[in-house]
Write a sequence for this structure.
C-alpha cells in the first residue's frame, strides 16, 4: 500500500489581547476540519488563542526572496510616508 | 505529589515576563464549598466518586499508551491532550473520594495503592485496542456516555461534583467531537477503512450494555439528587451513536429509533426468569467493573501505572 502524505496547512492564531492572527507554524491534516482540530491541539495548549485560521500551504502566494530589492528597499528612504511631522497631544495614546 | 496549587502562578492575568504564553488560567474549583451535602452517606459518595474517577484514570492510561504508537504525529498530540484532560478529571474525583471517605487518603493513595478489585471503572475503560479504528470507536462511545453523564451531574447537590462536572463537560465535548470525526472519516472513507471501522463497531457494540447498568450506589445517590443513574443515559447515547454511525455509513440510513432497527443497548434489570433475552444472560455473566470485577486487562494497566509508586513507597516528585 502506498502511503500518501497529508497536505500541509499554515496555522494562524489570534492571541487573547491581540488584534491580528499571527502565523505560528504548520501541520499536516487530511482536510480543513482536521487541520483546525490539530491546530487547536498543537498550538493553543497554553491559553495562547481565542481564534484559529488554517490555510493550505499551497494556497499561500509568497514573495520571492530574489525580489527583495525591488519589493522592500524602496520604502526605506521615503520618510514622508510616516506621519512623524505632527505634534501629538499628550492624551492621545498608542501612536 | 507534594506541590502547592498548580494554578497559583497562572491565575493572575498579568504581563509577568516569566510566562511565554498567556496566563489567566482559571481554577475550576475556586470558591466551591468542600462540605459534604446533607443526608448523604460518606461511604456511598466516596464509592461514586471512585467510579467516575476510575473511568477517567484508566481510559487516560490507555490513551497514554498510544503515545509513540499513533498513526500521525498530530493525532498523537490529540490523544495525549485527551488523556491529560481525563487525568485532570480523575485527580479531582479521586481527591473528592478521599475527602468523602474521611480516612485521610489522597489522590495518589487511591490511584497507586489499590488492587484491581478496588477499582470501580466500567470494563470498557480498561479494554486494549487492537488498532486505531477500535480506539476511536471506543473513545467515541465512552465520550458520548460520559458527556451525557457529566451534563446531568452539573445539577448535583454536591457542589464539588457539580463543579468537576461543569469543567469536564467542556473537555469531553471536544473528545467526543474528535472521536466522532474519525469514526465518520474512516467509516465513510475507502473500502478498507470502512471494513476496519465496521469491524471495530461490531466488536464494540456488545460491550456497551455495561454503560447503562445501574449500581445500587448510583441508584441510591441519584435518588437524593447527588448522582446520575446511568440507565437514564441510554436514550441520549443511542441517538448520538446512531446518528454518527449512520453518517459514517456503518448503519443503514433508514434506521429510525423505535423502528426496531436499533435494539436496546442496555439490559433490563427487571427482566427475570421468564422471557429473558439471551443478551441479558450474557451481560450478567460478564465481569462488572462497578462491582470491582474486572478483565485481566486492568491488572496489566495497574502493573505499569503503579510500578514506580509501589517500588518507592512515599516517594515524591
Amino acid at each position: 500500500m502506498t502511503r500518501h502524505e497529508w497536505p500541509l496547512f499554515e496555522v494562524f492564531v489570534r492571541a487573547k489581547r491581540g488584534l491580528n492572527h499571527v502565523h505560528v507554524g504548520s501541520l499536516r491534516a487530511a482536510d480543513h476540519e482536521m487541520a483546525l482540530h490539530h491546530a487547536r491541539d498543537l498550538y493553543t495548549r497554553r491559553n495562547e488563542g481565542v481564534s484559529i485560521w488554517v490555510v493550505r500551504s499551497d494556497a499561500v502566494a509568497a514573495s520571492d526572496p530574489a525580489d527583495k530589492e525591488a519589493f522592500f528597499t524602496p520604502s526605506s528612504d521615503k520618510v514622508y510616508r510616516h506621519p512623524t511631522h505632527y505634534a501629538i497631544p499628550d492624551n492621545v495614546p498608542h501612536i | 505529589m507534594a506541590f502547592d496549587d498548580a494554578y497559583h502562578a497562572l491565575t493572575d492575568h498579568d504581563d509577568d515576563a516569566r510566562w511565554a504564553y498567556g496566563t489567566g488560567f482559571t481554577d475550576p474549583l475556586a470558591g466551591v464549598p468542600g462540605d459534604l451535602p446533607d443526608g448523604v452517606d460518606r461511604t456511598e459518595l466516596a464509592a461514586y466518586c471512585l467510579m467516575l474517577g476510575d473511568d477517567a484514570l484508566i481510559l487516560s492510561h490507555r490513551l497514554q499508551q498510544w503515545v509513540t504508537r499513533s498513526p500521525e504525529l498530530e493525532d498523537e498530540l490529540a490523544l495525549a491532550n485527551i488523556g491529560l484532560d481525563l487525568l485532570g478529571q480523575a485527580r479531582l474525583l479521586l481527591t473528592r473520594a478521599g475527602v468523602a471517605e474521611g480516612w485521610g487518603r489522597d489522590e495518589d493513595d487511591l490511584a497507586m495503592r489499590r488492587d484491581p478489585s478496588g477499582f470501580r471503572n466500567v470494563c470498557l475503560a480498561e479494554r486494549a485496542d487492537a488498532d486505531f479504528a477500535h480506539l476511536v470507536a471506543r473513545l467515541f462511545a465512552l465520550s458520548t456516555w460520559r458527556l451525557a453523564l457529566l451534563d446531568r451531574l452539573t445539577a448535583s447537590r454536591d457542589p464539588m461534583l457539580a463543579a468537576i462536572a461543569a469543567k469536564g463537560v467542556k473537555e469531553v465535548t471536544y473528545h467526543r467531537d474528535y472521536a466522532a470525526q474519525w469514526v465518520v472519516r474512516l467509516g465513510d472513507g475507502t473500502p478498507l477503512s470502512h471494513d476496519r471501522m465496521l469491524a471495530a463497531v461490531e466488536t464494540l457494540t456488545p460491550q456497551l450494555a455495561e454503560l447503562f447498568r445501574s449500581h445500587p450506589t448510583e441508584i441510591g445517590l441519584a435518588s437524593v439528587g447527588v448522582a446520575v443513574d446511568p440507565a437514564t443515559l441510554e436514550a441520549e447515547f443511542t441517538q448520538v451513536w446512531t446518528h454518527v454511525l449512520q453518517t459514517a455509513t456503518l448503519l443503514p440510513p433508514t434506521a429510525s429509533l423505535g423502528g426496531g432497527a436499533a435494539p436496546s443497548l442496555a439490559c433490563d434489570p427487571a427482566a427475570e426468569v421468564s422471557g429473558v433475552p439471551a443478551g441479558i444472560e450474557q451481560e450478567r455473566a460478564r465481569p462488572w467493573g462497578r462491582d470491582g470485577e474486572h478483565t485481566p486487562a486492568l491488572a496489566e494497566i495497574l502493573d505499569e501505572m503503579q510500578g514506580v509508586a509501589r517500588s518507592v513507597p512515599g516517594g515524591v516528585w
The mean pLDDT of chain A is 83. Strands of chain A lie at 8-15, 21-28, 49-56. Chain A touches chain B through 18 residues (CB under 8 Å).
